[in-house]
Specification:
This protein is an alpha/beta fold and 138 residues long. The protein is built from 5 helices and 5 strands; from the N terminus they run βαβαβαβαβα.
Length: 138
């Protein structure tokens, strides 16, 4: 399983050091390059240089929360198509709906499992590859 995520850059944005470390460990074992950020501002500062293929972002963070950061990412032409997956300890319908409104592509409830994390990456990177190969054949 680890080979399939080689050369994939994943950003994990969470104000919890534990969550960042857990996700980073799982992702690195799967062959990903990992960029971590402590909040939305940190993420926005790193996103331009890092150009992540997929972004996991916590909703509840100081300064700039996940919804605001996601909206800013999705409003940027360069990152509009980058999948953004919201992370939250609340599994509420309202949170999911609000995440959709700001353009998030998926919603994971914390604590997430290794399968959920890698499954989300697989799902979104596969659709991106299919889109690219579809564009190249037309």
């Amino acid at each position: 399983m680890s080979e399939q995520f080689n050369e994939l850059t994943v950003m994990v944005v969470d104000d919890s050091k534990t969550i960042r470390r857990t996700a980073e460990t799982l992702l690195k074992k799967a062959g990903c390059e990992v960029i971590t950020a402590i909040d939305g501002f940190d993420a926005l500062a790193k996103i331009v240089d890092g150009k992540p293929d997929i972004i996991f972002i916590d909703i509840m963070m100081p300064r700039l929360d996940g919804y605001q950061a996601c909206a800013l990412i999705k409003n940027n032409a360069q990152f509009k198509s980058t999948p953004v997956i919201m992370l939250s300890s609340k599994d509420g319908l309202f949170d999911r709906a609000k995440g959709r409104i700001v353009g998030s592509d998926q919603y994971l409830t914390k604590p997430f499992s290794k399968e959920e994390l890698l499954g989300a990456i697989e799902q979104h990177t596969q659709s991106a590859h299919e889109e690219q190969s579809h564009l190249q054949t037309n």
